[in-house]
Amino acid sequence: MSKSFFQFKQFLIHQDKCAMKVCTDACILGAYADAENAQQILDIGTGTGLLSLMLAQRTSAHIDAVEIDTDAYSQAVNNITNSKFSKQIEVYHTSVQTFSREFSASIKPTYDLIISNPPFYQQSLQSPDVQTNKALHATTLTFEDLTAAVITLLNANGQFVVLLPPFETQQLTDIAQKKALYLSKKLLIQHNSQKTVFRIISTFQKNPVSDYQEDTLVIHETAHQTYTDKFQKLLRDYYIIF
């Protein structure tokens, strides 16, 4: 059974109401995404609010977080409200499709960074649990819809950073390429060096690139459960065990 909360160095995540719990790969996404020059950030499918809080910890940016599930929205609001970063983050209880339509009719500035750990099962057997389906299955957010929203919401020099399994990464990349959203970086994530890649963090931009940069992050040393130096360096500002 998952813990009902997860303590980070500068904030606490309660997760008992969310289908998507705090996981290592999501933490890697929050720590890895390049937010150095971002002033306006959008978190699509915020869940517990984890990514928004991780980004708020290391930036002065204003962060909008979108969440469609009612319980997850409530939990994100609670986690953010009870953190010292609450003034930086605003949570919206809506789909990103609706948010994008309403946004395009407003005078708000576009985003320097859009980050997402989206539902990724496109066509697969669903769980009987409705909340789990929303979190894991792309029934409420297809890759086509996600790409369309990003193109509307991302500014000309912004970056879209997304976490997916390898097969779904290729699906999204193919869709994005057709819509003039170009892959610029990939981070391949392995449990250890003997395991296959199980997640990829991809960075997209509107400006064309001749080729993308690729890097690998191994979480554990091969022979035991010790975290690699590279992983520890990335998560040191967040994990209380480092």
Detail the topology: elements first, then pairings.
Layout: E1 5-7, E2 12-14, H1 24-32, E3 40-44, H2 50-58, E4 62-67, H3 70-81, E5 89-93, H4 96-104, E6 111-116, H5 130-136, H6 143-153, E7 154-164, H7 166-178, E8 182-190, E9 197-205, E10 213-218, H8 229-235
Parallel strand pairs: 3-4, 3-6, 4-5, 6-7, 8-10
Antiparallel strand pairs: 1-2, 7-9, 8-9
Helix pairs in contact: 1-2, 4-6
Structural overview:
An 8-stranded mixed β-sheet has the order 5-4-3-6-7-9-8-10. A two-stranded antiparallel sheet has the order 1-2. The longest helix is centred in the last third of the chain and has 13 residues. About 6% of the residues have low confidence. It contains 8 helices and 10 strands. Helix 4 runs parallel beside helix 6. The chain has a single domain, classed as Vaccinia Virus protein VP39 (Rossmann fold, 3-Layer(aba) Sandwich). It has 242 residues and is of the alpha/beta class.
